[in-house]
Each structure stands twice: as structure tokens, then as C-alpha cells.
Amino acid sequence: MRSAYKYLLIVLLIVLQSTLFRFISFFGVKPDAVFIVVLSFSLLNGSWEAIYLSLFAGLLQDILYNNAIGVVTLPLLIVSYITGLLSKSVFKESSFVAFVFVFLGTILYNLIIMFSMVLMKYEFNFIESFMDIVIIQAIYNSIITAFAYKYLVSFNKYLIKNSSNFFKKM
Amino acid sequence: MPRFFRNKQFILVFLIAVALIAAMAYTYDTGRYVTKLESAVGYIFSPVQRVFYKTGKGIFNFFSSIKEIGTLRATNEKLQKEVEKLRKENVRLQELINENKRLKEALNFKTENTELDMKLASIISKNPGNWFNTFNIDIGKSSGIKPGMAVLDEKGNMVGQITAVGDNWSKVLAIIDRDSSVSAVDVRTRDNGIVRGDSSGGLTMIYLPLDAEIIEGDIITTSDMSKFPKGLIIGKVTKVTRDSGSLLKQAIIKPAADFERLEYVFVVTNIKGTGK
């Protein structure tokens, strides 16, 4: 099954994200490649894909790195599910649409993380963190998306074209 | 809206979300051994991550050493002087230790066991997100690691503590994480406080009394009240502030450990029974 490639790509990105990517941080903020890929596939393939991929990517990251399991999975699930639902009513293959979705999605994603941090009694300055991390990451992520999205679209086409008959209707 | 609740997919997502919130509440910072499944995930990922981490480290060091070439001579001279100074100080301290020992023996004091038992570990990956400062190391339960143990860098500076333990990997919460708090003491004035992180690489010492004589340049170490061994160096005071209206002082502290360049860490395996 060629759709396994999608999951392998996510695994690879998680490893790269936690090892190599911290050396390319910009104003101390790292881009989130896993988020970009999960959101792009949700946009292309709809809400079921959003659920599968966000659970897979989110749980792996939470198990490996985070203190509370669900910190990443929950916001990822919510954002990509909404993207999957909205994808029906937009022109999916446009890089600009993906750019907008990733920009707004990154902001919502981080807001949910901040909200769960409030529940876990973290102390932080909301406005400062929002400006220093969320906005920068939203810009960073969406610029990467603008360049990378067309490759993800063709990768996605490749996966669909070659998948077995059962999945052809996707 | 009612149409939404008849949608099976939406109900499924909703249930998963509730389950995730429950999981968050259950797993949050309990200082636990991870489940078999989690342990296995780490087991599979660790070797791959280690390779990539080493590679990234290499690239990073290459570029930063190019950047540093210009200042090397000056740094070298400064360090040479520092070494001289420390050597002299060391001799003096050795004498003091001997004297202390003799006096203690003379008084029949029971000496505390301040020796640290340490295990070497290497870092295999860091938290990919921007909110949390945690990293993973390559030893775990099979090497006798327990949640709550202190983690030091190569020079013995405090880096963090173990929060979750797998079979051969563990998660470490860095002291610069927002969630970290360590009971600390000013070496010179013996003022007690709590050191917390701010996730952007800085530390703040809070709950300092107004009459604390803490000043810039003081060394802060772990105090005897925490679960960690006392005397582990946390950092240096860079600024002391006083909140107007509050009856407490705060101090900004520069961590002694260099979190950007950590590669190997030591896990202190003696842990006190008190505390959490």
C-alpha cells in the first residue's frame, strides 16, 4: 500500500524536526514541518485523512517528547479536522489557499496549546508569547508551505494514482 | 448545530478529543515510568534520532567554530588567567576541606554523604515544538534511572530533571522550561528561593525576601530543601528587581549550562527520599 509512504514521510519529518531542525530556528522559533504536511494532506484529502494523520503524527510526538500526552495531538486534531471539513468548499490545489490555511491554522494550533498550558497552570505572558512565538511561526510555516505545497500535491497525486482499486475513488 | 451532532464523524472526533484531554490530565508531569507501548516507540526511534542529532550537531559546530575564530585568541588568554586563579583557589579550598574534616572529626560530627553517583548519557533529540524545553537521553530504567533524578551537564551544572522513564530512554525537563521549579539558594548570602524557567532560555529566582542581600554576580545552587543533592550550580545572578507593591524580590539568573551545545549529560542517581 502506497499510502504507507505518507506515514513514513511523517515519521521522517518527526525525526528531522527533533534533531536537525532546531539548528535552523529563526528568532528562536522553529518551523513545524509535521504540522505543514498533516494540514496539507487534510486539505487535499478531507476530514477522514485529517483524523488518521493527526492522531498518528500527534501521538508519536507526544509519546516521544511531551510531558502530557495530548498536548500536541489535540490541537493538531482540531485544526486539521476543521481544515478537512472546509476543504470541500475551496480550490484545494492552489498554493495560496494552502498558505492561508497554514497561516491561520498555525495560529489556532498554538492558541489551543496555550490554552492547555493555562489549564496545566503554566505561567506565561500571553501577549508576549503570542507575538514572539505564534506570529513568527505562522509566517515561517506559511512561507515554507508556499514553496513546498506543489510538491505535496504531486506526491499526493502519485499516491492516489497508484493505490489499489479499493482506494481509487478517493 | 443539531445536524452536527448527528454526524458520526463529528461524534468520533469529539470522543477522541475528550479521550485526549483525559490522557493529558492523567499523564501530565507525574514523574512516571512510561507504559510498555510508549517505551517501545522510544526504543524504535532512539537509534535513528541519535544519528540525526549527531549529524546536526556536527554541522552546527562547524559553522559556529568558523564564526568564533576571530575571538579565539582573546578568549584563550582570558581562560589561561582564569585557570591560574582557579588553581590557586583550589589549593586553598583543599586546605579548607582538610581542616573542615579534621574539625568535624574532632567534634564527632556525622558527615553527610555529598558524593554524587553519576551515570553518563548522551542526548538523542530535543522537543520539536517551541513551547516546551524537554529532551531525550539514551539511558532509562535498565540503567537504574528513576523519575525525579537531577541531570547535570559535563561540567556539573544543573540542566534539568528526569520526568518520564522508558526502558532505555528517558525524558528530561530542562530547568529553563516554564514548568520547571527548583528550590535554590544564594551561595554567598544563603537567601532561599525558587528558580523557574521561562522557556526562552532564561531563569528567574522568585520568593526572595525583601531584605535578601542578593546582588549581581552571585552564584545560585540547589538548596538542601529540594529532592536534588544540594550544591549543584544553577547559574549566576544578572539582575535583581523588586516588584512594586509586592513584598518579595526577584532575580534574573543566567543558567550556567549551555543548553544550545549540550551533548552529553550526567544523571545523578542518588536521590533523596524527601520531597515529591
UniProtKB/TrEMBL annotation, chain A:
Keyword Protein biosynthesis tagged: no
Membrane topology: Multi-pass membrane protein
One Pfam family in the UniProt entry: MreD
GO cellular component, one term: plasma membrane
Segments passing through the bilayer: 7-27, 33-56, 63-84, 96-118, 130-149
Main location: membrane
Highest taxon listed in the record's lineage: Bacteria
Compartment(s) where it occurs, according to its Swiss-Prot or TrEMBL record: Cell membrane
Keyword presence, Membrane: yes
InterPro entries: Cell_shape_determin_MreD_prd, Cell_shape_determining_MreD
GO biological process, one term: regulation of cell shape
Keywords on record: Cell membrane, Cell shape, Membrane, Transmembrane, Transmembrane helix
NCBIfam families to which the protein is assigned, alphabetical: shape_MreD (TIGR03426)
UniProt family annotation: Belongs to the MreD family.
Protein name listed in UniProt: Rod shape-determining protein MreD
UniProtKB/TrEMBL annotation, chain B:
Any GO BP: regulation of cell shape
InterPro entries: Cell/Rod_1, Cell/Rod_MreC_2, MreC, MreC_beta-barrel_core
GO CC, alphabetical: plasma membrane
Domain Rod shape-determining protein MreC beta-barrel core: 123-268
Function of the protein: Involved in formation and maintenance of cell shape.
Family: Belongs to the MreC family.
Name of the molecule in the record: Cell shape-determining protein MreC
UniProt organism field: Thermoanaerobacter kivui
UniProt gene name: mreC
